[in-house]
Amino acid sequence: MSFSGDLAYKFTEKIAIPRLIGTEGWKKAQNLIKDEFKKNGYEIQVQNFKSSMFMVNVLLRVAMIPLLIIIILIIFGYYFYPWVSLILSALILGLVPIIGKYATSGTEYKEPKKGINSQNIFVKLKSETSKAEVVFIGHYDTKSQVLSIVQRVICFVLLFIFGLIACILFFISSIFKLFLLTENSVITISGLVCAIIAGCAAIILMTNAVQNKSPGALDNGTAVATVIELSRVFKDAPPKNIDLMFLCTDAEEQGVLGASAFIQKYEDQFSKENTYFINFEGPGAKDVDLGVLTSFGMPKKQYTSKKLNTLAIQAAESLNINLKKHYWPIGLLADHNPIMKHGFKATMLGPMTISAGIHTPKDTMENVSRENLEKAGRIAQKIIELFDLELNQKD
With contact defined as beta carbons under 8 Å apart, do 220 and 140 qualify? Predict the structure, then answer.
């Protein structure tokens, strides 16, 4: 049985409604997912947890205030109290590894005392030998924001890069002023310009409120449709050696809360040696090639599963489908991140596009391609076939 891009497209049409957590559209999406899994012959399992919009709608915006204060103190400290500028610059530079770690893993899920009753929805398919397990993931919640994803990425990059450069330059300038009793105007002015750019980016990010205006067709209706269609494909022809799980997570847009809550609760039920997670983000984007996320972070490093990435590339080549290797520097936090933080092997399949109206009211079916949806599903299906064959040959 082959993956049907047409069936995946039709389900994406059904779920392409604004569905911010806690809204009527979100509740409708939950029922659509459950009904489709049942139609495919599965017993539904649900993980209940509490989620909140505090992180994305309050915390991340409020966090810009101390950053602005630090930037101002570094600038004014240089001119009036150079020791202040030196210490603050050194402190920020020392925190860069911690900032980078958060950007590639997020924080651990902590259930709020008061929150929205959320659900991770999943089904399982057992194999004959259970030598390995693969979990397909797609989140079903959506959000829109005041700033587009392109604007947010630009602001985060400007804040990170120019803020870092400003700290380095003011650190050097403070040393000149304190210990060499001289000033280097070129370094100082360059640091001032970088600090102003970083500060402006922080101010813009403070305006980025969460709204419920995105239908979320591409992000991430296509992923949910892919996961559900894969569950149909494998139901009557499961792999011999690989247990499969089809997981639709909630509250991803609020800080990957669903995936984090899931892996915290069920971690002990999976083998870290033989369990693999494939997260879908926007598969089926029109006029954009599918990609696999092979590296991440600043500085660039190998972060996702080499095994899964190799299988994905081999699968695409065997199907004569173009699959790009993607590197994402900063600002992309998705469901595979907290899972990898717990020591599991995972990767992400998606176009890695920062356009197509993602997180805006323009994220509609106009951005979705039946053909590309089918390509994403066929690659995922082929990954399982190749992996299953490999496990067979080890007998």
Answer: yes
The domain boundary, picked from 189, 205, 221, lies at: 205
10 Å CB burial of residue 117 (0-12, 13-18, 19+) is exposed
Cβ-contact 275, 344 below 8 angstroms: yes
Residues 6+ apart with CB under 8 A from 56: 143, 210, 253, 254, 255
Residue 55 DSSP label: I
Whether residue 119 is found in the same domain as residue 101? no
Encoded tokens for 327: 């590197």
The rounded mean pLDDT for the chain is 92
Could you say which DSSP state residue 212 is in?
Answer: S
CA-closest candidate to residue 376, choices 191, 258, 226? 226
Contact 94, 15 (CB under 8 A): no
- Nearest to residue 329, comparing CAs of 157, 76, 184, 112? 157
| Helix 370-393 with 222-235: angle, nearest 10 deg | 50
Beta strands (DSSP E) in 232-297 are 242-249, 275-280, 290-296
SS3 content of the chain, % helix, strand, coil (to 5): 55, 15, 30
pLDDT value at position 374?
A: 97
Cα angle for residues 9, 14, 16 (degrees, 5° grid): 90
Number of Cβ within 10 Å of residue 95's Cβ equals 11
Average pLDDT over every residue of 352-358: 77
Classified as helix, coil or strand, 285 is strand
The model's pTM is 0.91
**265: containing domain:** 5-52+112-144+212-393
> pLDDT tens for residues 10-54?
999 999 999 999 999 999 999 999 999 999 999 999 999 999 988
* 102, pLDDT greater than 90: no
Distances, alpha carbon 82 to alpha carbons 44, 94, 167, 196, 242, in Å: 62, 18, 13, 18, 62
Strand ranges (E), 130-241: 132-139, 144-145, 210-211
Stretch 152-172: mean pLDDT: 92
Q: Of 163, 179, 205, at which residue does a domain stop? A: 205
In DSSP terms, 211 is beta-bridged to 144
d(CA 92, CA 78): 15
